[in-house]
Amino acid sequence: MSKPLLTELKALNFSQQVVAWYHQHGRKQLPWQLSTGQHKPYHVWLSEIMLQQTQVVKVIEYFDRFIKTFPTLDDLANAEEQQVLALWSGLGYYNRARNLHKSAQLCQQQHHSQLPQDLQQLIGLPGIGRSTAAAIMSLAYDQAEPIMDGNVKRVFARHFLIAGEPNKSSTLKQLWQLAEVHKEQHEAAAYTQGLMDLGATICTKHQPKCDQCPINESCQARKKDMIAQYPAKKQKVKQAEVDLYALLSVDGSNVGLNQRDEHSIWPNLMFLPLFESAETLLNAHADAQQHFSLTHKLTHRILQIHVYLLKQPIKSTAVQMIDREDLINRPHPKALIHILNQHDNH
DNA sequence: TTCCTGCACT
DNA sequence: AGTGCAGGAA
């Protein structure tokens, strides 16, 4: 059977057009997708949690490493949280890894080591909200449930000319209602994946490829030539600047790390000992030398990290001298890698 | 450099 | 309404 031409697809309705476009142009070779089209729920779940915060290219390497280490949901549930966090190191938003681990244990205990096949039960698991639950229902179980992630918000805001800021509750309500109206009963997985792929590859924020869009003729923002104005811009977050003083204790290939407080930034992750001022750092370690400074941005803070070098091991009991080769087994934020790389270049 | 995106929890 | 990390694009 020959592929239908784009012009022939115009007779179809919104969701049918998205499905048809998916069969021609959507992504079907991602590591969490099986050629049969029936994807493993555990794989879909893991990929969706990672994709909440990271683009596909970056997720792929982490996903493969995860599945290699934890081939099944039981393997994940049986793991130590520190090992899960270690595998998550560099991805950011570490609570998602903690919730992933907790959810795996809940599934093991309450759902016979399976991901539930029910929207509300999925939402009941930590780390799974309405959109992620719907994505799992669609992609893993082929059940028609509307999703509303960042890509889909953009597609809907443009196509149906929804003006408000996408994260405002009134706007969200409109968007979810549209998603509900336009959900696809017969090919839920193809429709959901198609919507996401359409947003990611065609209906992009900058320079959308409207000429390749299967639903361009009914797109209201395009009709008004106002695509750049949709969706409305979010209010930007204020980032407070914070100065931190980090002690880099180096002894051969070992560096001194301690586990961070559970209420601090990067809770429970391994990092260099931090001080609030140069004075408190030097008070505790008089031999430390000012080394370099770098900027690291978090969601609501811009960290100016001033690194002080100490060319000897730290004796404090809270600090462990850890071989850099062993970092792969220890949870740590990306900032640690940036600091060590910069140290190597000095 | 500056701007921007991501989704769930509290 | 405030919070969490990192990276990609303009």
UniProtKB/TrEMBL annotation:
<dbReference type="InterPro" id="IPR004036">
    <property type="entry name" value="Endonuclease-III-like_CS2"/>
</dbReference>
<dbReference type="InterPro" id="IPR015797">
    <property type="entry name" value="NUDIX_hydrolase-like_dom_sf"/>
</dbReference>
<keyword id="KW-0227">DNA damage</keyword>
<keyword id="KW-0408">Iron</keyword>
<dbReference type="Pfam" id="PF00730">
    <property type="entry name" value="HhH-GPD"/>
</dbReference>
<dbReference type="GO" id="GO:0006298">
    <property type="term" value="P:mismatch repair"/>
</dbReference>
<dbReference type="InterPro" id="IPR023170">
    <property type="entry name" value="HhH_base_excis_C"/>
</dbReference>
<keyword id="KW-0479">Metal-binding</keyword>
<dbReference type="InterPro" id="IPR011257">
    <property type="entry name" value="DNA_glycosylase"/>
</dbReference>
<dbReference type="GO" id="GO:0034039">
    <property type="term" value="F:8-oxo-7,8-dihydroguanine DNA N-glycosylase activity"/>
</dbReference>
<dbReference type="GO" id="GO:0000701">
    <property type="term" value="F:purine-specific mismatch base pair DNA N-glycosylase activity"/>
</dbReference>
<protein>
    <recommendedName>
        <fullName>Adenine DNA glycosylase</fullName>
        <ecNumber>3.2.2.31</ecNumber>
    </recommendedName>
</protein>
<dbReference type="GO" id="GO:0046872">
    <property type="term" value="F:metal ion binding"/>
</dbReference>
<keyword id="KW-0004">4Fe-4S</keyword>
<comment type="similarity">
    <text>Belongs to the Nth/MutY family.</text>
</comment>
<feature type="domain" description="HhH-GPD">
    <location>
        <begin position="50"/>
        <end position="201"/>
    </location>
</feature>
<dbReference type="InterPro" id="IPR029119">
    <property type="entry name" value="MutY_C"/>
</dbReference>
<keyword id="KW-0378">Hydrolase</keyword>
<dbReference type="GO" id="GO:0006284">
    <property type="term" value="P:base-excision repair"/>
</dbReference>
<keyword id="KW-0411">Iron-sulfur</keyword>
<dbReference type="Pfam" id="PF14815">
    <property type="entry name" value="NUDIX_4"/>
</dbReference>
<dbReference type="InterPro" id="IPR003651">
    <property type="entry name" value="Endonuclease3_FeS-loop_motif"/>
</dbReference>
<dbReference type="GO" id="GO:0032357">
    <property type="term" value="F:oxidized purine DNA binding"/>
</dbReference>
<dbReference type="GO" id="GO:0035485">
    <property type="term" value="F:adenine/guanine mispair binding"/>
</dbReference>
<dbReference type="InterPro" id="IPR005760">
    <property type="entry name" value="A/G_AdeGlyc_MutY"/>
</dbReference>
<dbReference type="GO" id="GO:0051539">
    <property type="term" value="F:4 iron, 4 sulfur cluster binding"/>
</dbReference>
<keyword id="KW-0234">DNA repair</keyword>
<dbReference type="InterPro" id="IPR044298">
    <property type="entry name" value="MIG/MutY"/>
</dbReference>
<keyword id="KW-0326">Glycosidase</keyword>
<dbReference type="InterPro" id="IPR003265">
    <property type="entry name" value="HhH-GPD_domain"/>
</dbReference>
